[in-house]
Amino acid sequence: MKFDYINAFYSEKYTEETLLKGVDSLFGSYPDLAVRLFPVYIEPFYWSQMQGNNKCFKLLKENQGIYLFEFSFNALVIDERKKVTGKFYAVKSSQYKNIFVIISIENSFFFLKGLLPHFKKAYPNVSLTFITHKRLKNLLIDFRDKNQFKDFIIVRTTTYSRVDKNKIMPSVNWPEFTLEKAFEWVADENGWFQNLAFKFKRSQGPKQEASISRNGVIKSTGYAKLIYDYFMTPIAKTVFENVEFFGKRSRRDNPNRDIRPLSIGFDYDKFGEVEENQKFISSMRSMKASSVSVMHGNPYVHLSLFDYFDGSTFDIWVLSADKIIIVPQLKSSFQAVKRLLNHIFDNYAEGEIQDYKVEEQ
Fold this sequence. Notes:
- The protein is globular, with a radius of gyration of 22 Å.
- The protein folds into 3 domains: 5-127; 133-214, no CATH class; 251-360, 2-Layer Sandwich (Double Stranded RNA Binding Domain).
- By secondary structure, it is of the alpha+beta class.
- The longest helix is centred in the middle third of the chain and has 23 residues, at 224-246.
- Helix content is 31%, strand content 35%.
């Protein structure tokens, strides 16, 4: 009878470092094992609920900020409704307030049908991140070059392409490209990667496969500690920086009801032609769980947006050819700011996010 290393793994108490080393030790005993990780912001009251042994979560143990939970959900399994149960770790950041890294070694059904959707549906109490294309490329280059991985090949992508002014088309591709070639290819397709899988190896050792999604979810068949260090640590920092940068933007959070606008800048005249205004307006109308009112569409753009999730409101302006201005109103949560920016980047174009000074105009 084969020894059950999985139960033995869960029975231990871990620090952040020994947890990842423990996952790495499992790969040798279970060739089909994969680890899945993602960083997340969790509101303090929701974190308290998770620890309160509610119907979904049961806290099994905690040690030095490493929390082991049992998670249960109901799902259709081969035409039969069943209760599915599994475990996961939540690693509390020692540097960044309310930031956690979720780690699971359970099967894909548990993760993709239960755990990940639960955290996504808990928005705005729980917030995943968003990785720009430029940031994604830099993370992958850093991981490849600093670890001297050979044969680093992009083997599968889920790609979204802007085929015309009103339509974004998804596709799954198996390109077998180098990292640089893959990003050149998707730029030529006028698109972006929603998910990207890659294979890599050192000069000594087996080839491994990992994938990364635009919202920071990583899956890997090896090198758990390196994956954590080179992806989870910097992405968790990004989550925290977003909370800080996008927070307290609403007028009620600032003295004298002052506004704190943001701008999305482009390094070229994105709105050089009047027709571009309608492309942008059309992309904003597709934002889910929100209403968009067009106050003005030509020659400048002025939109009013209401977010149904938490009542956040924004004015959105295009007054020059190279930037979009976002003006949070009386209520504007950091989650809603991030969701709005994510939508623009996914459905219109990526740019550089900055504080906007009113006197710029």
